[in-house]
Structures are given as C-alpha cells and as structure tokens.
Specification:
Blueprint lengths: L9 H18 L3 E2 L2 E6 L2 E6 L5 E2 L8 H12 L1 H19 L2 H16 L3 H6 L1 H20 L5 H14 L4 H17 L5 H10 L8 H28 L11 H6 L14 H20 L3 E5 L2 E5 L1 H19 L1 H23 L3 H18 L4 H34 L3 H10 L6 H18 L3 H19 L3 H13 L9 H10 L3 H23 L1 H4 L6
Antiparallel strand pairs: 1-4, 2-3, 5-6
Length: about 525
C-alpha cells in the first residue's frame, strides 16, 4: 500500500533553496562589473558600467548556509519588525470584535444589493472582488504598492472566508491585485521611473501602450481569480488550502455577532479627542501636501480635509458604538497610509508606526488597561511569529548569491547569449532574462539599476526601441513576484495568511505561466508596431 508523500514544511523548502544557492556558488565562477553613480531624477543610484565585466576569484559557500540565515534576518529586519507591529496592532483591534462587526455589516449591505436585478445577474460577490482588486491593482500601477499589502491580509482573508471563499481569494483581493498592477505599471516611480531614467527616456513616456497592457493584464488576472472563487464557493473542499483555512474559519465565525454589546465607553470619546487634537496640530503644520502621481504633482490641503471628515464621521460612529469608531480609525489609517506614500515617501517604518498607533488607540477606546493591551499585543506577535521568521529565512538566499559573487556572472552570461537573435526574439529573451533575475533580486529598483544600463545599450545595437527594453524589464520584474522565494513581501503575505508555500505554488504556478505568456504576446507590438513613445 502506497503511503501519501508528506510535503516538507515551508521552512524546510526555503532552507533547501539556500543550500541549492550555495551549491551554485561552487559551479558558477565569480565575477563582477564596475559600478558608477548616476543621478536619476533627484536620486543618485549605483549602476553598472558597460563592458566592464571581469572574472574574479571564486567564493564558494559552504558553512555559510547557516550564517546566511543570521544575515538574512538582519537584511530583512525592516519587514520582520513591520510584520510584528502589524500583527500585534491588529490583534488588539480584533479583540474589540470591530472587524467582525464591519464584515457582518458589509455582507448585510451586499445582500440588500441583490434586490437590483442587474447587480444580481452580474453577481454581487463578483463585483466586490473585481472592484477591490481593481483598486489595489491601481495602487500597484501608480505608486508601486507592495510591502503595504501585508497589513491588509488580516482584513481581507477573514472577509473572503466569511463570504464563502478561501484565504487564497483573500490575498488575491490585495496582494495578487497589487502584483498584477505592479507588472502592468503605468506611473510606478520605483520601476518605470528608474528604468526610463537610466535609459535616458522621458519620464513615464509611452504611457498609452502601458495603460492598454494594464487593462489586458487586469482582465485576465481578475478573471482567473473570479473563476477560482466561483469554484471554491460551489465546493469549499476544492480549495487547495481548505484544511489550512480552519484557523480562519474559527476566527471569522460571525454567528455570535448578535451577542456583541454595542456601547461607547468614555475612553472612546477621550481617544477621539486626543487623536483629533493631534490631527489638528498636523493640519496647522502641514496645511498643504504635494501628492505625486507619476510625474504629475498636485498640491492640496489633504490633511486638513481628512481632519474635518474624521471629526464628522467619528461623532456619528461614536454615537452608534465604539466598534464603528474603531472601524472609522481603520479607514482613516488606510487613507493616511495612501497620503503618506504619495505625499511624503513613506515606507515600512512609517506605515508600521501608523498601524501600531491605530492598535493602541483601539485598545484604549475599548477601555482596556495598559496591561491588557500589552498582553494582546504580545499575543498578536506570537500568532504571527512564523510569518516573520520565514521572511528572515528567505533573506538568506540573496545573501548566499551576493557572498558567492555569482550574480554579476549570471547577468554577464545571459546578456552575452542574446547577441545573435532577431529583434522580436531579443526582446523576448530580455523578458526571460529579467524574469530569471527577478527570482534572485526581487527589488524592482535594484534590478533596474543592475540591468538597464546594459539592456538599453544592447537594444541600440540590435535596433530595438529602448522603450521596448523597459517593457521587457517591467513584465519580467512583475509576474514572478508571485512565486519568488527571495521576496520578503510574498513570504510575509503567505506567513500572515498561514498558507504553506508548496500549496501556494500549486495554485499560483499555472496563473504565473499564463500571465508570462500574456507578457510575451504584449511585447510583440513594441517591435512590430509604431507606438507613441516607442
């Protein structure tokens, strides 16, 4: 009798990849390009000098597979702390049952929409999934939302479970949507902006064809998720993570929602007043904010406006119950996240601080003692510990490649192999090359600085538009973000959603293959047609 093969734990899979990376350092010779500093916009970046590659002494990695784990934790410390703070903050908020109340209210609202025949025909759930995914895809395309999606997993996974779907649909709401938007980027300053700057192209030129590509990618990408969601809704056990979602099913149980006591303690009013005072101070100090969308800047009194809206909505929420006030806090936390990213170049430190403050405010509003808030925060960290651990472990993969000095060698070999191909084949090979590099270097800006100085010069030699080269980089940088084990964001998202890496791959690999093929097709017009900006 055959026994069922036991799938290795995610930690085992990632450590095995670290070992494999170390083995490659014994096979691939060491090498390096010379670097130089160039200015891209207002930022200085280190880029490769053309024709500067030279082989160096080999640096095989052996026992370093263990020290790489330590270095990986150090390198990914910002993402790890981000996950800890987000997990602790949301655990405090979850204890209030505010998110349960919000999900229940949202589902009750969607049921009422079924009275409209047109909406019922289209499917309320389909509209919800589509609209939320389009929103996050826009965020990914416009300002490169990526790390921020980790914070939304704790909201959308319970929502998806309560709607009758699974955790994969939950992370598709935000992470998958932002990833396909990132791949079809129109104004993303961290990818398109840097790649075009390094290629001496007008900033965000060729946006017309990029917008077309973004639409096509979203039609396919969202359609795939809708198809899978319908399958899970019809038969929940068909989900690849059905057993793993038991954790979320227990937490998302809204049957006892009627037992929640709707009240507003005095502590909630005090919390409201303190937050309002802080917001007023910031409104006075920052009466106007410059919001940047691509190369377009809009100056607007966004913080004073948000302060006024917060005042009005909070009073209505508090008169209803503290739960709705906490939901209002969550909504304004998200709004300030968007303003911070677009107006003040916020990254994980500022975003984590914002959510941490939200969690503390939620606990105080519920009239919890300092000790209880601390206990809840530590509970949240404990619950999310494995997610943070796997991010640090995955960081060790990149450390091995870097210490082995083989990244530049791989870059050199692949770029040299494209010299004798035709235009279409060359652009497609650039795409393949960028896709392969993305597995090792998931950072879009770092990859642009590493590859675009070489690729843009190569495109001139073969008579291909530099814009087409940027498109090849863009697609190659985007789709494989959904599978690369070196991505702290992907590993963090899966850890928070409690989805084993092997089960995620089972679902996402066909999806990524089809998206990759779509990328191949969308690159053909960049060579065969005369497009604006190309």
């Amino acid at each position: 009798m055959l026994t069922k093969t036991k799938i290795p734990h995610t930690f085992v899979i990632v450590f095995s990849i670290i070992v494999l990376a170390a083995l490659l350092t014994w096979v691939i010779p060491g090498g390096s390009f010379e670097r130089q500093i160039v200015k891209v916009g207002e930022t200085e970046r280190e880029v490769i000098k053309n024709d500067s590659f030279s082989f160096t002494e080999n640096s095989p990695q052996s026992w370093q597979v263990f020290s790489a784990i330590f270095d990986g934790f150090v390198a990914k410390s910002d993402i790890i702390v981000f996950i800890f703070l987000i997990g602790g903050a949301f655990w405090i908020m979850n204890n209030s049952r505010a998110i349960d109340v919000g999900i229940y209210a949202f589902l009750e609202f969607t049921k009422k929409l079924e009275h409209y025949k047109v909406l019922k025909f289209l499917g309320i759930d389909n509209l919800v999934i589509t609209l939320i995914m389009l929103m996050f895809s826009t965020f990914g395309a416009v300002f490169g939302m990526s790390e921020e999606t980790i914070a939304f997993i704790i909201i959308f996974v319970p929502l998806a479970i309560t709607m009758g779907y699974d955790s994969i649909v939950g992370i598709s709401f935000c992470y998958v949507a932002a990833a396909i938007g990132f791949a079809g980027a129109m104004l993303n300053p961290f990818t398109i902006g840097i790649a075009q700057g390094l290629s001496d192209l007008p900033l965000f030129s060729g946006i017309e064809f990029r917008f077309f590509c973004w639409i096509v990618i979203n039609i396919f990408g969202i359609g795939w998720v809708l198809r899978y969601a319908a399958k899970v809704k019809k038969n929940p056990k068909s989900s690849v993570v059905y057993e793993d979602d038991e954790y979320w099913r227990q937490r998302a149980n809204t049957e006892d929602i009627g037992n929640i006591r709707y009240e507003t303690p005095k502590a909630a009013w005090v919390t409201f007043i303190i937050i309002l005072v802080v917001m007023i101070i910031y409104s006075v100090n920052m009466p106007e904010t410059v919001l940047k969308v691509g190369n377009i800047s809009i100056t607007w009194p966004i913080i004073p406006v948000l302060t006024g809206i917060f005042l009005i909505t909070s009073i209505f929420a508090l008169r209803k119950s503290v739960h709705f006030f906490i939901l209002n806090l969550l909504m304004f936390t998200i709004l300030y996240l968007i303003v911070g990213v677009m107006g003040y170049s916020w990254y994980v430190m500022e975003i984590a601080t914002l959510f941490f403050a939200m969690g503390i405010a939620s606990g105080v509003a519920m009239n919890n003692s300092a000790n209880k808030i601390t206990a809840l925060f530590l509970e949240g960290i404990k619950d999310i510990m494995s997610a943070a651990m796997i991010v640090g472990l995955a960081g060790g993969i990149i450390i091995i490649f870097q210490n082995g000095h083989i990244i530049d060698t791989m870059l050199y070999y692949v770029s040299r192999s494209m010299g004798s191909m035709g235009k279409i084949a060359s652009v497609e090979m650039m795409y393949v090359f960028q896709t392969m590099i993305n597995i090792i270097i998931p950072s879009g800006s770092a990859k642009a600085a590493l590859t675009m100085p070489i690729m843009s010069q190569f495109s001139d030699l073969i008579g291909v538009s530099r814009q087409a080269t940027v498109m090849a980089y863009q697609f190659g940088d985007g789709f494989t973000n959904l599978i690369t084990p070196t991505s702290g964001v992907l590993i963090g998202v899966l850890g928070v959603a409690k989805i084993p890496f092997d089960k995620w791959l089972k679902w996402v690999i066909p999806y990524v293959i089809m998206l990759t093929i779509l990328g191949f097709l969308l690159l053909i017009p960049t060579v065969t047609m005369k497009l604006n900006g190309f």
